[in-house]
Amino acid sequence: MKKVVVMSDNHGNDSMMEYIKAQEPHADYYIHCGDSEASYKELLTGYICVKGNNDWSLDLPMEAKLQIEDVTLFITHGQYLGYFNRELAMKDLLIRNHCQVFISGHTHMPLFLKDGSYYYINPGSTSLPRGGSKKSYAVVTIDGQAVDCVFKEIPRSQ
């Protein structure tokens, strides 16, 4: 079983990357879904990162694929998915890339959805939540082909 910690959309709040690692020190993987707006790239050390629509100065890939146990993850920020029929666009990307888990940010709202053999995960935002959600990140466990996700709320004082 592997533990994957996923964060997104801290929008320049550099302390969030270390805060998440301090809260989850025993993760097997750390993923950042973009819009870190990190002051310098070294802040992202230890994270598998993709570029968000506000990461102008960071040289990061637009998407990444990662094999963990028996599932393949597709990671992107999500700014090109739109807001209507978003799940259809995500499923299309999973199918075309031969992946089972779609991980993205951009909406600032947590999401964990299972659709047949596909999973969709958005950790929400560590700094600027939307839609009535709280500041959050996601802890994903992968055991063989089984995927589970819990959201961890970040205290207002952070």
UniProtKB/TrEMBL annotation:
What EC number(s) would the UniProt record show? 3.1.4.-
All copies of the Calcineurin-like phosphoesterase domain together span 3-143
Q: Which UniProt keywords apply?
A: Metal-binding
Annotated InterPro entries: Calcineurin-like_PHP_lpxH (IPR024654), Metallo-depent_PP-like (IPR029052), Phosphodiesterase_MJ0936/Vps29 (IPR000979)
Asked whether the UniProt record includes Ubl conjugation among its keywords, one would answer: no
- Cofactor(s) needed by this chain: a divalent metal cation
**Enzyme class (EC, first level):** hydrolase
Record carries keyword Magnesium? no
Q: Name one GO molecular function term.
A: metal ion binding
Per the record, the similarity remark reads: Belongs to the metallophosphoesterase superfamily. YfcE family.
Q: What is this protein called?
A: Phosphoesterase
